[in-house]
Amino acid sequence: MSAGTAPPEVGGRERRRDPLRRMIGLARPRSARFALGVLLGAAATGSGVALLGVAAWMLATAADHPSITALSVAVVATRALGVSKGVTRYLERLVTHDAAFRTLAEVRVRVYERLARTEPFGRFRSGDLVSRLVNDTEATLDLLVRGLTPPLVSVVTGGATVLFLTVVYVPGGLLLAAGLLLAGLAVPLAAAALGRGPGRREARARGRLSTTLVDTLQGAPDLVAYGAMERQVARVNEADAELTRVARRDAATLGLSAGATALITGLTVWGALFLGVLAVEEGTIGPTALAVLVLTTLAAFEIVAPLPAVAARLGAIRASGERLFGVLDTPPAVAPPAREGLEIDPDADATVRIRDLRVRYGPEEPWALDGVDLEIPAGETVAVVGPSGAGKSTLASVLLRFRDPDGGRVEIGGVDVTDYPADEVRRVVSGVPQDPHVFASTLRENLRLASPGAGDEELWAALRRVRLAGEVEAMPKGLDTQVGSHGMGLSGGMRQRLALARAVLAAPRVLVLDEPTAHLDPDTRDAVVDDLLDAAEGFSTLLITHDLTGLDRVDRVHVVRDGRVIQSGTHAELMEQPGWYRAVGVR
């Protein structure tokens, strides 16, 4: 087992735990802060209840003309409770929100670190991933601030208030206990049950709306070109309408809960008044105690007022938690090495040897690579060709450490790449993907992604090497030219050359070019292939393609089909042999 990897049974138990418990568990390092927040919240709520109780005592006692000292004490107590309510409420919000935001920051870091391994990106649609990153991650804050502190405050303050009224008048205390249990437990449980289904639907609807919006924005040019924009906008409206319907059901649940709480509050206060009047007539308590009993009972329901709304949100928060942990629990495709901190010798042999490489994407899936053997001698260019689905891009993923082999070895200079951290391998191996991403910034900043400290001379040298310097010099702002969103201000060939210039700036020893001309027209493709091969001189280069353009310039060609190498040789040798290569080449 690799270091830092949890046993399978541990991960399974963790995934089976309730998402709400797991989200609360994220706050465990700050449990002391949340405990302090509960105490401050109890002090704030208790001050509010006590304030009304003291006011009731003072008003009822004033009719008996008490001493100035007694009234002065009551006035001072009233002012003190009013001040302490505001101060402790402020401190409670400050402490709990600080702890919750710090926890949220740690959760975001965990999510970003998980996604930085790159392999989860292909498992979620971009809009859905945005929703998980934003809405579902922030549900942790909602739970910690509104779902953790208020129930604990209610237990502490409600218990103290019931105990106080029991001392004043036992039936009144018992009646308040029953009312608080109904309003603070029964109503929230019912709200939670009613909100479970809508909560799940809300999380799904929000993810669907986000996905549809992102797809619409990213695909707007194609949608307009094919006259499909109206249909796509209708899908956006449909997703928005679904989210609105769910929100209305959620609002109905909240309204019903608020009404039930108000009804229980009114019945409990009337019951306390009825019992208190009977007790006064019987001489059990006095008129002052009656006023304290009734007004304290009324104020006590402030304690449980937030709970139904919190409970109604638990369904949505639980669904968001499931989606959040769906990202965090995604098993990594690249396991950490047995020993961290190892570095590959930058001056070592750059020969790449692949032996009996086997990869598949799931236990029941067919082999994407099934016993591949090939070698890329140092400084030479080797091409891997074959039809779509042959396993070529999977080979690139293994070399770039985006996937671990399920069998066999990949060696660079005689060293197994799985013995080293993925980032260390990527320091030696760089590449150009099929559809390189160009950031909405300047040419200079896009180039400096590969070498943040590179000066303009180095940037121009890289551009000259990939034959892009002339086009950049012709631009009015040169390296400071804005390339637009996704590099829309550049042609397809320029985007490929820019990606290659970034790879060259990274100064790798092994260069992987994965379908670099897949989206180019024939004339541009021929020119780009020549430029790529010229720029790749001196590197150990793997060119992955399904097109045979320029392969007469590579040192060796391997034909891959169904995950296996079925032909190997030079371009001239393969053109003389019957098989897939010659069949494609003579078309």
TrEMBL record:
Membrane-spanning segments: 34-60, 66-83, 152-170, 176-194, 254-278, 290-314
Gene Ontology biological-process annotations: cell redox homeostasis; glutathione transmembrane transport
Topology term for the membrane: Multi-pass membrane protein
Main localisation: membrane
Localisation: Cell membrane
Any one Pfam family match given in the protein's UniProt record, by short name: ABC_tran
Domain (ABC transmembrane type-1) ranges: 35-316
Gene3D superfamilies: ABC transporter type 1, transmembrane domain, P-loop containing nucleotide triphosphate hydrolases
GO CC term, one of those recorded: plasma membrane
Keywords on record: ATP-binding, Cell membrane, Membrane, Nucleotide-binding, Transmembrane, Transmembrane helix, Transport
GO function terms (MF aspect): ABC-type transporter activity; ATP binding; ATP hydrolysis activity; ATPase-coupled lipid transmembrane transporter activity
Domain ABC transporter: 352-587
Source domain of life: Bacteria
Family as reported in the entry's similarity comment: Belongs to the ABC transporter superfamily. Lipid exporter (TC 3.A.1.106) family.
Protein name listed in UniProt: Thiol reductant ABC exporter subunit CydC
Name of the encoding gene: cydC
